[in-house]
Amino acid sequence: MLSSSALTALCVLLGCAVVFALLAAVAVIVLCFRVSSLENEVRALSAPRTSLPAMYDPDITIVPVVPSEPIAPAPVYDPNSTVGEMSVFDVPDRTAAKLMAIVANEMKTPLAQLKFISIKEVK
After folding, report:
1. Alpha-carbon dihedral angle through residues 30, 32, 37, 39, given to the nearest 10 degrees
2. What is d(CA 39, CA 108) in angstroms, rounded to the nearest whole number?
3. Bigger pLDDT: 44 or 107?
4. From CA 104, how far away is CA 110, in angstroms rounded?
5. DSSP states along 47-72
């Protein structure tokens, strides 16, 4: 009969052998799929093209659109600029900043374009 340490060593070796065998099997399967997909690509590329794709329409011409007037560049706004002073009554600064950000987001307007006069809590 085998000693407990010999039995443990045998189990470890057998477990490692099983893991390596499964890894080798997965590698072979992946390699087979890769070769198969490469063969399909070569076949598709080497096949003669007898017709144009179905979405091709020779009667359609693409004409670039040129604007009649030059487009004015959008104004550049400094995100660090201020519009003026604002009064905050009974509202923490962090809450006031969140409220201003929500209003600017809902209006889809840059915060630098909005002017807040005062923010106060309604009780």
Report:
1. 150
2. 53
3. 107
4. 6
5. S---S--TT--TT--------SSPPP
**61 HSE (CA, 13 A, CB side):** 3
Calculate the CA 16 to chain-centre distance.
40
Q: What is the mean pLDDT of residues 101-114?
A: 85
Q: What sign for the dihedral angle of Cα 101, 107, 113, 116?
A: negative
pLDDT tens-digit series, residues 109-123? 888 788 888 888 887
Would the pTM of this model clear 0.85, i.e. be above it?
A: no
Q: Which tokens hold the place of 117?
A: 């006069």
Let me know how long the chain is.
123
Compute and round to an integer the Cα radius of gyration of the chain. Answer: 36
CA 96 to chain centre: 32
H or E element, residue 40:
helix 4-46
Q: According to the per-residue pLDDT averaged within each range, which of 13-17, 45-49, 100-104, 107-111 is highest? A: 13-17
Q: What angle do CA 54, 55, 61 make, to 5 degrees?
A: 130
Looking at the DSSP assignment, which residues form a beta bridge with residue 75? none
